[in-house]
Amino acid sequence: MSVDAKDVGTGRSQNLKVQPTSGLGKDEVEKLVTEGDAFKAADGQRKELAELKNQAETLLYTTDAALDGYKDLVDAATLADTKEQAVALRALMSAGGDVATIRAAYQKLEAMTFAIAEAMYGTPEPGPGEAGPA
Q1: 103 with 74: CB under 8 angstroms?
Q2: What is the pLDDT of residue 20?
Q3: What is the pLDDT of residue 107?
Q4: Are 99 and 45 in contact (CB under 8 A)?
Q5: Tell me, what's the pLDDT at 18?
Q6: Distances in Å between the alpha carbon of 60 and those of 66, 89, 104?
Q7: In the predicted model, is pLDDT for residue 129 greater than 80?
Q8: Taking Cα atoms as reference points, which of 58, 82, 59 lies closest to residue 70?
Q9: Which pTM does this prediction carry?
Q10: I want to staple 126 with a disulfide (CB 3.0 to 4.6 A). Which of 43, 97, 116, 130 is the partner?
């Protein structure tokens, strides 16, 4: 890096050149950049897994709360199947399952909870002035 300075009053100018005397060479910097790129994909996978686990924990919490709160409104077989799927998802997460298997278990439990909600609430009836299903 080079810096030039000129005193306007005296007209004198001075030049200062700054050069590193130690530190990383060009090859070392390129090596670090290459290593960073190599770890970028692994970091992205860890991030995706962490986000999926957070979503799964939220789904498990809400599913457990819903099943406990509405167990008298859900048939026994559906209740047992849903609890079993929740246990399977928890086991995958604690065993360190990969993204694909956890996502599949998450989606299965999510579909089961949606089916329970649909069964509990059914399809809404059209209100006054609204058209029914065609």
Answers
A1: no
A2: 66
A3: 96
A4: yes
A5: 74
A6: 10, 8, 14
A7: no
A8: 82
A9: 0.64
A10: 130
Where is pLDDT greater, at 15 or 104?
104
Is 6 or 61 the better-scoring residue by pLDDT?
Answer: 61
Taking residue 99's Cβ as centre, other Cβ atoms within 10 Å add up to: 14
Token pair 């770890």 in the structure block, residue: 39
For 52-107, the DSSP string reads HHHHHHHHHHHHHHHHHHSTTTS-HHHHHHHHHHHHHHHHHHHTT--HHHHHHHHH
Residue partners of 99: CB distance under 8 A and separation at least 6: 45, 48, 49, 52
DSSP 31-62: HHHHHHHHHHHHHHHHHHHHHHHHHHHHHHHH
Please state, in angstroms and rounded to a whole number, the distance separating the CA atoms of residues 128 and 117.
24
For residue 115, pLDDT over 60 is answered with yes
CB within 8 Å of 15: residues ≥ 6 apart: 2, 3, 4, 5
Q: Give the whole-angstrom CA distance, residue 3 versus residue 17.
A: 6
**Predicted local distance difference test score (pLDDT) of residue 92:** 92
